[in-house]
Amino acid sequence: MAAAKSHLHPIEGARFHKPVAVPNYTDFYASIHHATNVGRHFRPEQPLLANYKWIPIGYHGRASSLVISGTTVARPSGQTRLAEAQHPSFGPTRQLDFELELGAYIGTGNLLGSPIPIDEAEQHLFGLSLVNDWSARDIQSWEYQPLGPFLGKSFATSLSPWVIPIEALAPYRTSLAPRAEPLPYLNESTADTSFDITLEVLLSTSHMREHNLPPTAISTSNLSDLYWSFAQMLTHHTSNGCNLQPGDILASGTVSGPGPGSEGCLLEITQRGTVPLQLPTGELREFLVDGDEIILRGHCHRKGLPLITLGECRGAILPAS
Ligand code: CA
Predict the structure, then answer these.
(1) How confident is the model at residue 6 (pLDDT cuts 50, 70, 90)?
(2) Are 252 and 223 in contact (CB under 8 A)?
(3) Would you state the pLDDT for residue 7?
(4) What is the CA(118)–ligand 1 centre distance, in A?
(5) Residue 137 DSSP SS3
(6) What class, spelled out in words, does domain 20-74+90-318 have in CATH?
(7) Over pLDDT 90: what percentage of the chain?
(8) Are 128 and 252 contacting, i.e. CB atoms less than 8 angstroms apart?
(9) Which among 93, 80, 95, 97 has a CA at the least distance from the CA of 142?
(10) How far is the CA of 251 from the centre of ligand 1 (A)?
(11) Could you tell me the distance, in angstroms and rounded to a whole number, from the CA of residue 253 to the centre of ligand 1?
């Protein structure tokens, strides 16, 4: 017993740090299910934009506010405009959300001006971690046109402490769903360019913790639900000559599956706050409230193969300061 305890104690008591001082963080939008679900709220007649199946959509994120799992996240304030209001106002976000994502760390970078061909892309990927791209939807929806996400995203992004090397995931290689043929520079010569990684989102409310109730699962999806592979995201990112650096993170964008129960953020789960999520405690959530903790988990498991866990990515919401 003593040996088992001493084996467990170091992790239980460990204080985690970011595995890498990340130089640059890019966030993609690689789930066609997420893009369609979100697009439906804004453009019911054409949820998916015409460029989606041609180009891996992304934007440059903010590396300075990447935080390690377990770091609390203060509710950000920002400029928003209520639907019925004539003018915007400044104050704490009313629509705080999480985004379930996978992040790929760059191992070897490339020189400025030297694009990485698609069939060499994976040689530049080191490994995968869980990423929670916290999002303030009301700030985001008021600010995002015409240049894209800004302060609605950059207040914090949480990372899990473990990086699972791409080589370790080899037994769990799988192909993405059949897709339209992309332009030649994104056309992969092999099929198995994704990984069978089960992803889960759990929510723990203050009420649950006060009553010693476990977190409740609110979403389950799989990395292979994405439309674009990390190799395609990487090659597209460098296709203009942009240089990637060791330790850079390319995040997948919200990973949502095709059906109910697999939506990777509350914006989708609650249909932008119009259909509250009912928790087993009877609590309702349109968006996150102070005291809520989001726990992302990921694992690979198949009969006859070793279990691989990506660990956890946690973050609890504190009141606005
Ligand atoms: Ca995102």
Answers:
(1) low
(2) yes
(3) 57
(4) 23
(5) helix
(6) alpha beta
(7) 93
(8) no
(9) 80
(10) 7
(11) 4
Pick from 226, 6, 219: which is nearest to 104 by CA?
Answer: 226
15 C-alpha to ligand 1 centroid (Å): 26
CA angle 116, 121, 123 (to 5 degrees): 115
Cα 278 to ligand 1 centroid, rounded to whole Å: 24
Active centre residues (catalytic): 34
Confidence category of residue 42, pLDDT binned at 50, 70, 90 = confident
Q: Where are the alpha helices (DSSP H) in 153-255?
A: 206-210, 230-238
Closest listed residue to residue 312, CA positions, set 292, 291, 298, 293: 298
Rounded to an integer, the average pLDDT of 98-103 is 98
Q: Is pLDDT of 224 > 90?
A: yes
d(CA 230, CA 250): 8
What digits encode the pLDDT tens for the residues 245-289? 999 999 999 999 999 999 999 999 999 999 999 999 999 999 999
Residues 6+ apart with CB under 8 A from 278: 284
Q: Which residues surround ligand 1, an ion (CB under 5 A)?
A: 27, 99, 133
Residue showing tokens 């890498």? 20
Q: What's the average model confidence in pLDDT over 67-86? A: 96
CA 309 and chain centroid, separation: 17
Residues 6+ apart with CB under 8 A from 60: 24, 25, 26
Q: Position 63: which residue type?
A: A
Rounded CA-CA distance 315/99 in Å is: 12
* pLDDT tens digits for range 9-20: 677 788 899 999
SS3 313: strand
Give the pair of three-digit tokens for residue 83: 């639907």
H-type helices in the chain, by residue range? Answer: 2-12, 32-42, 137-143, 206-210, 230-238, 266-269
Q: Residue 102: is its pLDDT beyond 50?
A: yes
Judged against a pLDDT cut of 50, whether residue 4 lies above it is answered with: no
112, 140, 167, 264 from 271: Cα distances, Å: 42, 16, 38, 12
